[in-house]
Amino acid sequence: MLRFVLRRLASGVVLIVVITAATFFLLHASGGNIARRILGQEATEDTVVQKTHELGLDRPVASQFGDWLSHAIHGDFGASWFTSQPVSEAITSRLQVTLELVIGATLVSGIVAVALGVLAATRRGWVDRLVQLLSVLGFAVPNFLVALALVTVFAIQLEVFKPTGYTSLSDDPAAWLSTVTLPIIALSIGSIAGVAQQIRGSMIDALDRDYVRTLRSRGLPEWRVVYKHVLRNAGGPGLAMLAVQFVGLLGGAVIIEQIFAIPGLGQVSVGATSQGDVPLVMGLVLASAVVVVAVNLVVDLLQGFLNPKVRLS
Amino acid sequence: MTETLLEVRDIVVDYPVKGFRKPPFRALGGVSLEVGPGECVGLVGESGSGKTTLGRAVLGLAPVTSGSITYRGREISRLRHRERRALAADLQVVFQDPYTSLNPSLTIEQILTEPLIARKTDKQLARRRVRELLDAVHLPSDAGNRLPREFSGGQRQRVAIARALALDPKLIVCDEPVSALDLSTQARVLDLFKEIQARTGVAYLFVSHDLDVVRYLSHRVAVMYRGEIVEWGPASQVTVRPEHPYTQRLFLAAPVADPAKQEQRRAERHRLLALQREQDEQMEINA
Amino acid sequence: MTSLWRRLLRNPTGIGSLIFLVLVVLSAVFAPLLAPHDPNTASAYDTLSGPSATYWLGNDGSGHDVLSRLLFATRLSVTLTGETLVIAAVLGIVAGLLAGYYGKFFEAVGAAGTSLLQALPAIVVLLAAKSVLGPSDFAAMAVFGVLIAPAFYRVVYSAVSAVRGELYVDAARVSGLSDPRIIGRHVLTVVRAPAIVLAANIAGISVAISAGLDFLGLGDPAIPSWGGMLNDGFTNIFTQPLLVLWPSLAIGLTCIAFALLGNALRDELERVDAAPKRRRRATPATTVTVAPAAVITHDEAPEKPGTDLLVVQHLSVGYGSADGSVKTVVEDVTLTVRRGEVHGLIGESGSGKTQTAFSILRLLPSGGRLVGGSITFEGRDLANLSEKQMTALRGKKIAYVPQEPMSNLDPSFTVGSQLVEPMRLHLGLSKSDAKARALDLLARVGIPNPGRTYAAYPHEVSGGMAQRVLIAGAISCDPDLLIADEPTTALDVTVQAEVLDLLRDLQRERQMGMLLVTHNFGVVADLCDRVSVMQSGRIVETGPVRAIFAGPRHAYTRSLFEAILPDAEARGALPGITSSGTLGEGVTA
Fold first, then answer.
1. Does B203 map to a domain?
2. Where is the ABC transporter domain (chain B) (predicted)?
3. Is-contact A185 A161, C-beta < 8 A?
4. Which residues pair with B121 in a beta bridge?
5. B225-245 in b/e burial notation, b at 16+ Cβ within 10 A?
6. Three-state DSSP class for B195?
7. Contact assignment for C522 to B257 by CB distance below 8 Å
8. Inter-chain CB proximity C212 and A152 less than 8 Å
C-alpha cells in the first residue's frame, strides 16, 4: 500500500516538473519584448535593456528554468513582473477561495449524482428517461450560461442571493453561504450530469452481472444487494468520472468567478494572462497541477478501497 | 515412413507478466510432436495445459521463446510478417467460438473471400469459389449475402471451416472447434471434419479438452498437462489404455452417459486416485 | 453506416437537432447576405436601444446591430468548432489506432501523453497559451484541439484494443491479410460509429469553450463573437437585460443541439448492437415451435418413495417485447422434485431449462415473468408469494448453485464476508458464530486451507475453488431444495468429477432435493435419480434415469443419445504413419 502511494507520488512529481518545464519554455519562446511591455512605450532603449538583464531574460531559457525550479523547491516562486507582489502571496489566499467553490461543487455533484444515477438505474422506465434527458441537457449547457441565468433570476429578479462579491467563511458563515451558493450550483450542474450518467451506466452494468443473481438467491433484501454490493462495484467508474469533473470544475471556476466577482484564482489568471506576467502564470500553472495531482492521488486511494484488485496489485 | 508435414521440436513459449522484473509465465515448456500429411493429431488437456498456446504458436500467433517449428522441413517459428502471410495458403485455422471468430458486420461472402483477396484473386473467380466452399460445408448457396448473426452456432462454425478451406490448405489448426456447440450439432460438425479430410487429404492439429471428441477424430493423440506433453501415441492406445497417471485420471473423470457404467467408472476412479495417492506417498518416503 | 443515417433521420431528436445545426451552418455561410447591417458599424445614437424596425434585435453597448453581429459571430463559432474537431480527430484517431493495434511503445507514449494533456484544466492551459499566442481565437482553439484529442484517443484505443483480441482478427492474420488491410476491414468499421458520437459531443464542448474565452474578454475584439456579445450584454445587464439573451440562446441551443445529436446517434447505434450479435445464456433464444404433444412419462419404479418437495405444474414463462406481445420460452412444464431426490433437467441451448430453474427461484432476467401455472413448494405456491416472502425463502429454503464460478462471486468482497452475510441474516448468528460456521463449510466442501480462502478475494481463488465456495454458500443455511444450473459446465473434467462427488455427498448427507440443469448426459447418469428432457420450452420425456437411458422413447431424446460419441471406438493410426507409441518428454509411466 505504501509502495503504491509512493509510486503515485513520484509519478505526480514528474508530471508537475514536466508541465512546469513545458509551460516555462513556451512562455519564453513566445518572443516579444517583455521588458518593453512592462516599462511601456515611453521607456528608453537603455532602461529596457537594463530591465531585460534585471529579469534575467538575456540568459538561456534552460538556465532560467533551472533557477526558477531551484527557487520553487525552496518555496520561492518569484514576484509578479507588474506589481512586484510575491507570487505565493498573490496565489495562496485566492487558491483557498477557488478550492472552497470547487470542493463544494464536487461534494454536491457526488451526492446528487449518486442519488440520480441509482434512481435511474433501479427504477428504469420514465424516471430513467427523465434523468437521462436532464443529464444530456445539463452536460451540454455551458456553466457560464447557467451562472448568468442564476444571477438574473435569483440575484437580480428575486434578490434571494447576493449577485456578486465574496465574504470569507470565518468572517460571516451566513454571508459566505449567500455568496457561494449560486456559484457552486452553477459549477455543479455539468458535473452532476456527467457523473450521474456514469453511475447510471455502471449500475445497470453491475446489476446485470451474474453475482447479483447469486446474491439475490441467497435471500439478501434488494436494498442490500443494490446499496452494499452493486453500488460499490459501480462506484469505481463513477469516482473516476468525478475526478475528471474536478479538473473541469477547476477550469470552470475561472469563468464563474468572473461572473460573480469572486476573488479567486480566476481573476488573477485572466489578469496575468492578458499581461504576460510570466512568474504569476507559472505560479498558477504550478498551483493547478499540484491540486490535480493531489486529487488524483486521493482518488487512487479511494479506488483501492473500493476495488481489491487495484489495492492488491 | 511418409514425409512429415509439421514438426514441433522443444518449443518453449513465455508470456511476459505485467509488473517490474516479474519472471515471465511459461505457457509451454519444451514440447515436441509431429503431424503427417492427411493425419489428424489430437491435442487434449485441461485449461492452462498449454494446448491452445501450442496451436497458436504453430500459427505464428504466440511468441516462440526457443525451439523450432518446421513445416515441410522449413523453419516457420520466426518468420517475418511477409513470409508468414505467404504461408496462409498452407496453414489455416478454425477457432473455438463461432460467435467471435466471424466479424459480425461482414457478410458471409465477405468473410469467405478474405483469404482470397489477400492473394489478389479475381473477383469473378472468388465468387465462384465462395459457392464451392458453401457447398463443401453443406450450407445453402444463397448464404453468402447474409450476416453471421442470422446463423446458428453450428452453421457459423461451418462458415469458419469454409474460410479455412478457401486456399486449399495442407494443415488446419482446430482450436476446440466443437466445444461451444450443442451435442447434436457437435456430432454433425465432427462428421464434416472427417468428410473433408477424406476428400481433400488435409491434416488437422485438433485441440480439445474432450477426450471423447479427440478419440473420435484423431489418429494420434498428445496429452498435455501444465505446459508439457505427458503422453503421445496412437489414439487407440492413448485414449483407450492410457499409461500416464494424469491421462488415466483424465480418462476416468469424464462421466459416461450410462448410469450403470458411470457407477463403475466412478468406483474405478476412486480406486485409481487412492492408488496414485499411495504411490505418491511411497515416492515421498523413498525420496 | 448508411442505415445509421437513415435511422437518425427517423429519430425525432436526431432530425430536429440536425436541422438546427444545418441552419446554424447556413447562416454562418450566408451571413454577409443575411445580415441587415455591417456588424462593425456602430450607431452612436442607438447604443443599448431595444429591438426596433431597423435593428430587429436592438443595439449593443457600442451601438452595433445585434442581429448582424450575431450572424457574423456564428461564422466564427462554426469555423472554430470545425478547426478543433479536425485537429482533435486527426490526432486522437491516428494515435488511438497506432496504440490500440500495435500496443507496446505506442501504448506507453499514448498513456503518457494523455495523462500529461489531462493533468491541467483546459481553461488554465488556454489562458497560459493566450499569454503566448495573443488574442487569436484560432490559435487558442488549435491548442484546445490538442488538449481534447485524448477523448478521441481513448475511444479509438479501447475499441481497437478490444478488436485486436477478437478471434476474427486472428483469423484474418492467419488468412494472410496485411496489417493495413486488417485495420481497414476490421478495425476502422468498429471505430467509425463511436468516433462520430464523440465528435458531436466535442463540437458542443468547443462551442462552449471558445465562447467562454471570448466572454472572459480574451478574444480578438475586432471579430464579433458570441462570447464577446455575452460579455457586452453582461456588462449592461441592468440597463438592457435582453442583450444577454440573444448570445445565450445562440450558445445554449447550439450546445444542446450537438449533445442531443450525439445522444440520438448513440441510441440508434445501441439499437443496432442490441440485435442478437452474441448468444447470451440468460436470454431466451428460440420461440416455441413444437406442437403440444403428450409428455412421454416412464413408469415410476417404486424404489425411492419420498414426499413431494417441489411440484411445478403447467408452468409457462414469457418475455414481454416492445410491441406488447409476450414471447413464451417455457410452456406447460410439469415436474416434481421429491425430498432427497435429484431431478435432472436436460436439454440443448435455448430449450428453456435454465429459464425453468430461474422461474422457480423467481429470479428471471428483466422482462421475464411467469405467465401461467403454479410452483408449489412445501405447500405454498411460489408464484403468489410477495417479493418479501420470496426473499425470506431464498437462501434459507431454496438455494442456488450457478454455472460460472468466477462471475458469481462479488469481486469487491472477500469470500468470507459473502458467506457470512446470508447466515447472519437467515440464522441470526453472531459474527463469530457465522465465521466459525463458514470455516467449517469451507472445510466440508474440500478447500485445503479454509482460513486463507475465507480471507481471500474472489480473483485470488481458482475456478474449481470458487465453485466449491459457491456450493458452500448455497448449503450454508441448510436448504431443502438446491437448484443447480450447469454446476460443472465451466470446470475442467477432473475438477468436474470432484465437484460431482461433492454434490452427491452433500445431497445424501443432508437429504436435499435437487434440481440439476445440465446439457451433459454423463452428468445426469452420474448424479440424477430422475430426468426430464426439454426441447423448445417443453418437457418431451420424463422418468427414472435408468428407464430413460435404457429405452428413450421420444424421437428427440433418441436423437440426443445418438449424438453421443461412441465410448470405446478409437480412430486407429493413419496407415503409413509408423512412429507409434513414442512417448513425449516428461512421461513417467
1. no
2. 6-251
3. no
4. none
5. bbbbbbbbbbbbbbbeebbbb
6. helix
7. yes
8. no
Contact A299, A235 (CB under 8 A): no
Of the candidates C339, C341, C375, C373, which has an alpha carbon nearest to the alpha carbon of residue C357?
A: C375
Virtual torsion, Cα A47, A49, A55, A61, nearest 10 deg:
170
Neighbours of C182 (CB within 10 A): 22
Q: Which of C1, C169, C574 to mutate to test the interface with B (most CBs of B within 10 A)?
A: C574
Q: What is the pLDDT of residues C507-559, one digit of tens each?
A: 999 999 999 999 999 999 999 999 999 999 999 999 999 999 998 999 999 99
| Partner residues linked to C328 by β-bridges | C318
Please compute, for residue C235, the number of CA atoms within 13 A of its CA located in the half-sphere on the CB side: 12
Domain count, chain B: 1
Asked whether the beta carbons of B95 and B104 are under 8 A apart, the reply is no
Residue C151's identity, in one-letter code, is A
Determine how many CB atoms are found less than 10 A away from the CB of residue C301: 12
C26 has a pLDDT exceeding 90:
yes
Domain with CATH 1.10.3720.10 in chain C: 2-31+62-271
* Residue C116 Cα, gap to closest chain A Cα (Å): 7
**Nearest residue of C to residue A284, measured between CA atoms:** C124
**B242 assigned to some structural domain:** no
Domain range spanning residue B286?
A: 255-287
Tell me which chains share at least 3 CB pairs under 8 Å with chain C: A, B
Per DSSP, the three-state class of C443 is helix
- Check CB contact of A73 with chain C, cutoff 8 Å: no
Binary contact (C525, B256; C-beta < 8 A): yes
The shortest CB-CB distance from C127 to any of A213, A229, A270 is to A270
pLDDT tens profile C46-57:
777 777 777 777
Of A279-288, B199-208, C412-421, the one with minimum mean pLDDT is A279-288
* Partners of residue C278 in chain B, C-beta under 8 Å: 99-100
Residue C577: per-residue pLDDT: 56
Strands, sheet with B220-225, edge to edge from the N-terminal-most edge strand: B91-94, B171-175, B203-208, B40-45, B220-225, B228-234
Spatial separation of the C-alpha atoms in residues C423 and C431, rounded to whole Å: 9
Q: How far apart, in whole angstroms, are the C-alpha atoms of residue B69 and residue B57?
A: 9
What topology is assigned to C296-337+347-393+520-564 in CATH?
Rossmann fold (3.40.50)
CATH superfamily of C2-31+62-271: MetI-like (1.10.3720.10)
Instruction: Classify residue A264 by its DSSP letter.
Output: S
Whole-complex ipTM:
0.88
Residue B268 lies in a domain: yes
Q: Which residues of C touch A139 (CB under 8 A)?
A: 259
Contact: C412, A233; criterion CB under 8 Å: yes
> What are the cell numbers at C429?
448468528
Q: For residue C201, what are the CA distances in angstroms to A53, C220, C259?
A: 48, 26, 5
Residues of C in contact with A21 (CB under 8 A): none
Q: Compute CA distances B100 → B115, B173, C167, C271, C403, whole Å.
A: 18, 17, 6, 20, 21
Q: Are C550 and C344 in contact (CB under 8 A)?
A: no
Hey, are the CB atoms on C131 and A259 less than 8 Å from each other? no
Region class of C582: left (phi > 0), else alpha (psi between -120 and 50), else beta? beta
In whole angstroms, what separates CA C276 from the centre of its chain?
Answer: 13
In a domain, B274, yes or no: yes
Query: Which residue from C252, C391, C407 is facing A209, i.e. has the nearest CB?
Result: C407
Side chain identity, residue B80: R
pTM of structure: 0.85
* pLDDT tens readout for residues A178-199: 888 999 999 999 999 999 999 9
**Phi-psi region at B104: left, alpha or beta (left = phi > 0; alpha = psi -120 to 50):** alpha
Q: Which of C245, C254, C73 is nearest to A140 (CA)?
A: C254
All three cell numbers of A296: 488524483
